[in-house]
Amino acid sequence: MNQILVSEKLYITPELKRKKRMYKIDFFISVFLVCILFSYYIYAEYDKNKNEAISQEILSSLTFEDNVADDTTIKFADNSIVVILNTEDPFEVIYSEPVQEETHDNINWLETESGQRYYVLATINIPSIDVTYPVLNETTDELLKISPTKFWGADPNEVGNFCIVGHNYRSSKFFSKVPKLEEGDVIEITDLSGRMLTYEVYDKYVVDPTDVSCTTQRTNGMKEITLITCTDDSQKRVIIKAREQV
Question: The pTM is what?
Answer without folding.
Answer: 0.68
